[in-house]
């Protein structure tokens, strides 16, 4: 996401981290804002409890989606700021970068939101997020033992996800 017309600096190779992994943390939310999965890889500082952290992350996503929809120059009917939109409706964002991290976001047509927080020099992760969503569908949604809306506890999904995310550079 670019602000104030600044040109985006082309991403340089990701800086190595202590474990060789650029991913800091990942969230999967359902359409109601329930955190189905939270994973950490390289998060050096914990300042909030997990409930507060999940609420703040979902609130950030809700606010950014609402803001980008309100600023959409192609849609005359923008509605009120803060009014929820259907997945895929209006303008959306894919990522933003700060000096310490990059947040990449994908929302599926069913309303599942996948957020991956990585090193700030990590490149475009849209295809990686789609792949993670496909893993979620294959290992979690198609699992007859999974109760929709509950926390993800599928060991095969967690292992495959962990291996894939660690390979992202």
From TrEMBL:
Its main location: endoplasmic reticulum. It is found in: Endoplasmic reticulum; Golgi apparatus, cis-Golgi network. Signal peptide: none annotated. Pfam families: Sybindin. It comes from the Eukaryota. The keyword Transport applies. InterPro entries: Longin-like_dom_sf (IPR011012), TRAPPC (IPR007233). SMART domains: Sybindin. Keywords: Endoplasmic reticulum, ER-Golgi transport, Golgi apparatus, Transport. One of its GO terms (biological process) is endoplasmic reticulum to Golgi vesicle-mediated transport. GO terms for cellular component: endoplasmic reticulum; Golgi apparatus; TRAPP complex. Part of the multisubunit transport protein particle (TRAPP) complex. PANTHER family: TRAFFICKING PROTEIN PARTICLE COMPLEX SUBUNIT (PTHR23249), TRAFFICKING PROTEIN PARTICLE COMPLEX SUBUNIT 1 (PTHR23249:SF16). Belongs to the TRAPP small subunits family. BET5 subfamily. This is Trafficking protein particle complex subunit. It comes from Kalanchoe fedtschenkoi (Lavender scallops).
């Amino acid at each position: 996401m670019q602000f104030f017309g600044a040109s985006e600096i082309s991403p340089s190779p990701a800086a190595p981290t202590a474990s060789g992994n650029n991913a800091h943390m990942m969230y999967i939310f359902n359409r109601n804002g329930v955190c189905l999965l939270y994973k950490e890889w390289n998060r050096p500082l914990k300042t909030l409890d997990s409930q507060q952290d999940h609420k703040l992350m979902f609130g950030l996503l809700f606010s950014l989606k609402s803001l980008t929809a309100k600023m959409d120059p192609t849609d005359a009917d923008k509605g009120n700021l803060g009014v929820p939109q259907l997945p895929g409706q209006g303008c959306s964002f894919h990522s933003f970068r700060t000096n310490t991290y990059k947040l990449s976001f994908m929302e599926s047509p069913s309303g599942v939101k996948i957020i991956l927080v990585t090193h700030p020099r990590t490149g475009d992760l849209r295809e990686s997020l789609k792949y993670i969503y496909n893993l979620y569908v294959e290992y979690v949604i198609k699992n007859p033992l999974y109760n929709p809306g509950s926390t993800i506890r599928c060991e095969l999904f967690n292992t495959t996800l962990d291996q894939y995310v660690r390979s992202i550079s």
